[in-house]
Design a protein that fits this description.
2 copies of one chain form a homodimer.
Chain A: H1 8-22, H2 29-36, H3 40-47, H4 50-64, H5 75-92, H6 94-102, H7 111-123, H8 128-154, H9 162-165, H10 175-182, H11 187-203
Chain A binds a DNA duplex through residues 5-6, 28-30, 38-42, 44-46, 49-50.
DNA sequence: ACCTGAACACCGTTCAAGT
DNA sequence: ACCTGAACACCGTTCAAGT
């Protein structure tokens, strides 16, 4: 006992540590108080209630995401590099990012990247609503992909199982396709290929 | 009291009704028991525990999704129609589908559509791994988009706010783009445009 | 200004006991 | 085979009381 004065920062740090080590479900007010060595009710003075604590935690996580530097020779390549860098960042802190997802702020994490994308679609010659549409399309695709991956990781065993669903008959005699769909997904490759395909269409000169 | 015998089906029906009317957070074992007019503990005999109850509920929701009929003249158009139909289905039962999301089974809902997609990419001339990649790319994009939309609906107010972030300066002098990015997203149009763009690239003859 | 313990209203779950 | 109430171990939150 007789510990040093509690601060809002300390509460947030300890809360983040708890989440990082034992996952979001371990973050209860009582466990947090135990970890801090204070009474449960002290926390309330500093952060209001559990809801605002989570808000603050998520806010910090979003703010801590690093800047993104586009790489590559063409605008298309640079857009793809931004997408890949963002995905890598999000996968670095799975638990905290999971909380960001749960609180519906996944898109917020994309905002720093948005400026970089604007520059690239401009470089590719797009303007106005068309440029905005392209930026948004990439944004939705990247954020969506990250959400899908998280979804998959949480449900590793698909109950009927994709495998038996994809016997050769169902694949219309295309055995290579049946094998590919029955096997595991190479998420990294699929992500890159999908972004590349989308960007290619979006940046094309045609209407 | 002296109510008719409790059945597993009745438990699931009532649970689904509770979710449909008051959202997933209203589904507690005690509220469910009250609704059913039984003791809390009776429920446990029929469904095991809360976790399996939710599993069963989600399973039923997924199974109840209707079949999808592709429409359109070209394979590309029919792929887009499958994507749009699926999105429409998912938006019909927001609460139950939210639970499907939370339990990581969003992709499961896509399986019925997968067969239709295989037929279309075959019709477009793709085979084997390339065909499988195309199917998966569409699958991830559609599921991802639905997840993003749900994310947005849960966080209607973006705290810094996209609006003030997109003053004309940040948009590199492109005022039409600034206006477009500051305004609300036309999710329906963006979805269709994105899928169309992706599908166009994927089904193209080139490697 | 900051911290505390007691108390409240909720959870999910177990279990021995009933029919 | 099915249902019950009592009890347990957890929650988040409020509040009057302390310093």
């Amino acid at each position: 006992m007789a510990r040093t004065a509690l601060t809002r920062e300390e509460v947030l740090d300890t809360a983040a540590g708890l989440v990082r080590q034992h996952g979001p479900e371990a973050l209860t007010m009582r466990k947090l108080a135990a970890e801090l060595g204070t009474a449960v009710t002290s926390i309330y003075w500093h952060v209001g209630n559990r809801e605002s604590l989570l808000d603050a935690l998520v806010e910090r996580t979003v703010a801590d995401l690093g800047a993104i530097r586009p790489r590559g020779a063409s605008p298309a390549e640079r857009v793809v590099s931004v997408a890949r860098a963002l995905r890598r960042q999000l996968r670095a802190h799975p638990h905290l990012v999971a909380m960001v997802h749960e609180r519906g702020l996944t898109e917020r994490m994309f905002l720093p990247a948005q400026r970089a994308l604007v520059r690239e679609v401009h470089a590719a010659g797009l303007r106005g609503a068309r440029a905005a549409g392209a930026v948004r399309a990439v944004q939705f695709q990247v954020v969506g992909y990250v959400l899908v991956e998280r979804n998959r990781e949480r449900a590793p065993v698909q109950r009927p199982g994709e495998e038996e669903l994809w016997d050769t008959a169902a694949a219309e005699g295309d055995e290579a396709l049946a094998r590919a769909l029955a096997g595991p997904v190479d998420c990294d490759a699929l992500f890159t290929a999908s972004v590349r395909a989308l960007v290619k269409s979006l940046l094309e000169p045609g209407a």
